[in-house]
Amino acid sequence: xxxxxxxxxxxxxxxxxxxxxxxxxxxxxxxxxxxxxxxxxxxxxxxxxxxxxxxxxxxxxxxxxxxxxxxxxxxxxxxxxxxxxxxxxxxxxxxxxxxxxxxxxxxxxxxxxxxxxxxxxxxxxxxxxxxxxxxxxxxxxxxxxxxxxxxxxxxxxxxxxxxxxxxxxxxxxxxxxxxxxxxxxxxxxxxxxxxxxxxxxxxxxxxxxxxxxxxxxxxxxxxxxxxxxxxxxxxxxxxxxxxxxxxxxxxxxxxxxxxxxxxxxxxxxxxxxxxxxxxxxxxxxxxxxxxxxxxxxxxxxxxxxxxxxxxxxxxxxxxxxxxxxxxxxxxxxxxxxxxxxxxxxxxxxxxxxxxxxxxxxxxxxxxxxxxxxxxxxxxxxxxxxxxxxxxxxxxxxxxxxxxxxxxxx
Length: 409
Fold this sequence. Notes:
The protein is an alpha/beta fold. The chain has helices at residues 15-31, 63-75, 147-154, 175-187, 189-200, 297-309, 354-359, 373-378, 388-397; strands at residues 2-7, 36-38, 78-87, 90-99, 102-108, 127-130, 133-139, 159-164, 204-212, 217-225, 231-233, 240-245, 256-264, 270-275, 283-285, 288-290, 319-329, 334-346, 365-371, 382-383.
């Protein structure tokens, strides 16, 4: 599992700004090939005292939360982020897990710290799935106790995400003050993370709020602690991100072998399909699908072209890359890992008979159309892979990817 740990400056009450920062981190995580981005406690709302500012808390289905979940679909990167949650008359410190535009689960803090008297505790261990991997979540003051950590590992978590927002006593007015605050968190929060990592023999990945807010300062830290107590971390208290890897394989077996046929006309347009998966956002990619029993990749290409485009006369080749991704399949109701080989098919522009397209609805295909690079860039669509316009640019320049090049998420 490849993880981006974000030490984020989460301004109190600044939902628009905090959302924009989260979305930017997701794009950074996508560019760096990460499976998940982990954010601090209370990262989306900022730290909230519900007795003073109940209006700053969010329901799990509130607009900013939905927008961030949509960001996990657009980027192809899962996210674990924090909110001050309003649930009826109760308030919780909640960490939200989202993937592929969907809510994967929530964890409500079970052990509260100083100054959190306006919140209620949650219940139930925080263990979530990302493909075949399981991870746990703990929150800030829970470093003081063992049960959230122990129960998550007992539930199969191979890595623990430790998400925090430890406010510093007194404002930081100079570098010395920031260094002192950061040193405290290194000995306290990071020290506790190391204790739990050694005790439970699992890696602990930390993400901590960083920098000044309207009335509070946070010491900032993103770090990975190994079960042996080895630490990789950001150098200081400032906002930043750390990309780490842990031995928690997200790959779901058996891996589904598949092909994608990138059909490009003389104008450089690509013929793409979109699937009816209940979303308002368009999701477009080349025709293709899984290999059938005993079928090789080339035979699968020709069959998919017949089935989806009603064509058996297109020039096939060369192979232009590979793509591997793990995703939640809405049609099968489970996690899947798909390994794709991509092939280029150059052709004169043609139209697929609407009657034939109508027959594809049983496979979830909603529409086929030709897209130019400029149209893809200017629209709100999501492409497979996310960098498909750049791939079409390369093809137009004659800079074809090699057969084994990774095409990304």
